[in-house]
Amino acid sequence: MNYFVNRLLYLLVVFVIAISGVFVLVNNMPGDPAYGLAVYIAQQRNMQFEQALEIAHKMMGIDPHESVVTRYVKFMNNLLRGNFGYSTFYNTSVNEIIARALPWTLFVISLATFISFSIGIYLGAFAAQKRGKTIDTLISTLASIIQAIPPFILAVLILFVFSVRFRLLPLGGAYPVDMEPSLSISFIGKVLLHAVGPILAVAIPQMASWTLSMRGNTAQVMEEDFIRFAEMRGLADSVIASKYIRNNAMLPLVASLAIGIGYMLGGQTLVESIFNYPGIGFYFGKAIAVRDFGLLTGLFSLIVIGVIVATFVADFVYALIDPRVKLK
Amino acid sequence: MRKESLKNFYYDYIQPLLVNKKSLIGLIILTFFILMATVGPLIVPLDMTSNFAERYQKPSLKHPFGTDYFGVDIFQQIVHGSRSVISLTMLASFFAVLIGTVIGVARGYLEGIVGRAIDAIIMVFLVIPSFPALLILAAVFMNYNLNVVEIALLVAVWLWAPLAKQISAQVLSLKSKEFVEASKMLNMPLRYILFSDIAKLLIPYIFINFVMQIKGAMEFSVGLMFLGLAKFDPTHWGIMLNYALYQAGALYTAKGFHYIFFIILNIVLLIYGGILLSQGVEEVFNPRLRGNE
Amino acid sequence: MSIIIRVEDLRAVYLVREGTIKAADGISLDILENSVTAIVGESASGKSTIIEAMTKTLPPNGRILSGRVLYKGKDLLTMREEELRKIRWKEIALVPQAAQQSLNPTMKVIEHFKDTVEAHGVRWSHSELIEKASEKLRMVRLNPEAVLNSYPLQLSGGMKQRVLIALALLLDPVVLILDEPTSALDVLTQAHIIQLLKELKKMLKITLIFVTHDIAVAAELADKVAVIYGGNLVEYNSTFQIFKNPLHPYTRGLINSIMAVNADMSKVKPIPGDPPSLLNPPSGCRFHPRCEYAMEICKKEKPKWIRLDGEAHVACHLYEEGRPLK
């Protein structure tokens, strides 16, 4: 238990450092914190820089006479109360945007993770059992080719092939603009159809990496002495394959599963942007594009919280399922 | 003497890579792109003037990869863009390895509070989701018109941490090994121990990691360019992709397929070359690394 | 006593990149029922290969080239896999050398007992299983309540070795084969295990075969000793006779080397030279390069496996020529 308390404290420190880092980065740029935004506004609206700077100050809620320290204390204080800040671009609180976007992101990543993990584990174990045979070479080569495709590039390909060329999938969004959200079957069907693109773009690269890790782990476990001893005891191959090989090979992967979900919260910025899928990543991309630093810091805080919670959960899960860790 | 050590270097590090199938193919792919970046622009001229009469031409002898929305030859752009793609990727990998090695070795050697502080820094960079953080950093610096070296540094900041962690662990374990103990007992200076004993064992490690960084560096830099966050070269493939999708709308017209396809093909092939080489390097050198543990 | 296992001209090799390792080269051996047989040899002399080939549990790169292993008149080597699986563990149990890594780290000890029983179609209720497992664990001097619900990493090296023995005894096998039961253990634990095997031998009607590099262990436990050198069986005799009157020059060297440990250091007579490479073994008698009695014929011809008076068997030209060691 002591271990977990330590770990939690440690992750909290990491959180504070990370968030403070971003705050300092955004707010304490050489010169004026609103400089970047002001340049952007001046370009966009074709106005004088001084005028733009004034607008930028207002938009960011900065009083130029207030010290950075005061602002930092305010910001952290708000964060502690669960207030993620204010978006100047959307003219609403970041909390409201999170409430709107988070369900979509969670929906996509949980489905994508579930699909990629189950298929990847199966394929990896299968390839390892057939090590050196053609089917193994095929699976591993395909998997490493897929790994060479960044998810957002895959998203572009999927969008082009399935949406533009063959018109099988919608061009973007989470559901048709002309539909009112409801619990009707047709609406749910549309929601699923809109999610296919983002899910594929996230799941396929994931699947490749699960496959490769599972293949490596399985091959390693197959060399272990306890496998030979199980064979000597006359256990059936199916029992050895599941209880001895698969269970041991899978353990480390189950833990990374939790961490993976945490990282995907913010890691799918480009994929969601390409599909115009209104999740956290989409708003993050938008915040970058329009230099909405309030929204940016708020969403980033959420992403870091997600990663930290996931890391903690992963530790916990690992300790729960692996006696080697549990007993230490 | 020099000749002898060069020969040894060839047999120890180069020849095994030419024998391994994966690293050989990876090397061929990377060499192809490096040639494209160095010699290519000298042979292939770049003409960026718009010629709407030739918009979206299919690949032909005249235009091997076809033309884009503005009627500009895509092949020429790819060749000229490879220069900034390769230099950005290599520089970013180099910086990442440099930062990771320096911090990792420092962590391995420094004990007490300083060591723990470095640990915490490494941990922070390990935990923070790197791509969103990179985007924020890039957005903050966007209006400063960064050059290749500066962008490479921005990317490298988010790549070095895993390497630093591995190296610090290696140094810590090497530190306790007998021969380091021995050089301490023989009263040799710390500097000597550091460079002679440890550096020797870390070289293959650093080499492997440089190659392994290529994938991350490529993905990050192309992603940055794709979002239009660093625009120093209009023919960088990430920026080409950005133009193709958002300026020219090539994504939404079936005629533009070859435009997107050839950009993507080159990006993926280059990353795949890096992956193959790193898999090969790992296969060749890792047993040796494990032997050192 | 009757013969329970008869090994005839067993040949097994390992395929490695550099060639084939001729690890067991024409082994013939009779194992007597309810006896304890020690197979003694230096490391990499092929002694483990013999028992692994006998039970068809060689690692993937191992191949059996020829020979027969007759158990109750049936050849284990040509038996169908299904039939062999039934005999394995139920009648012939093998405790491997790597005792420390032989249990599944993610399974409790009890589950190992459970799946072993299930694999052999034995229908025991859970309480029966616990009862039987506890009985065997007590037999190896372990506390069943504590051990059964432990994970392997909670056990010490000696405890793991005992769990493997208990596991091997679970289905009351006729033959128990142990590969280096005392290696990788500290001296005290080694003594415990030897003591334990002695007790088992008294307690149970069982045939024990064990492999060891330590001839002292053989002296303490075995009724009969088989000496292996470079993949060949060189001598086979009752323990008493082997120590009293070693026939083969190699056996004599082995025994001299242990006598020296607790005797006068000046009389230490280690065998000069190195163990042979099994990739390219020496011609003729594989011991000839290290043998002080080597003759011309030893370099050319492989000595025959001959039976002398009593139980004594030896492979040495000295005896074929009728010039025994004095």
TrEMBL record, chain A:
GO terms for cellular component: plasma membrane. It holds the Pfam family BPD_transp_1. Keywords: Membrane, Transmembrane, Transmembrane helix, Transport. GO terms for biological process: transmembrane transport. The keyword Transport applies. The chain crosses the membrane at residues 7-26, 104-126, 138-162, 182-204, 253-275, 295-321. It is found in: Cell membrane; Membrane. Residues 102-314 form the ABC transmembrane type-1 domain. Its main location: membrane. InterPro entries: MetI-like, MetI-like_sf. It is a multi-pass membrane protein. Gene3D superfamilies: MetI-like. The keyword DNA repair does not apply. Belongs to the binding-protein-dependent transport system permease family. This is ABC transporter permease.
TrEMBL record, chain B:
Residues 86-273 form the ABC transmembrane type-1 domain. The chain crosses the membrane at residues 24-44, 85-106, 118-142, 189-208, 220-245, 257-277. InterPro entries: BP-dependent_transpt_permease, MetI-like, MetI-like_sf, OppC_N. It is found in: Cell membrane. GO terms for biological process: transmembrane transport. Pfam families: BPD_transp_1, OppC_N. CDD domains: TM_PBP2. It comes from the Bacteria. The keyword Transmembrane applies. Keywords: Cell membrane, Membrane, Transmembrane, Transmembrane helix, Transport. SUPFAM superfamilies: MetI-like. GO terms for cellular component: plasma membrane. It is a multi-pass membrane protein. Belongs to the binding-protein-dependent transport system permease family. This is ABC-type dipeptide/oligopeptide/nickel transport system, permease component. It comes from Caldanaerobacter subterraneus subsp. pacificus DSM 12653.
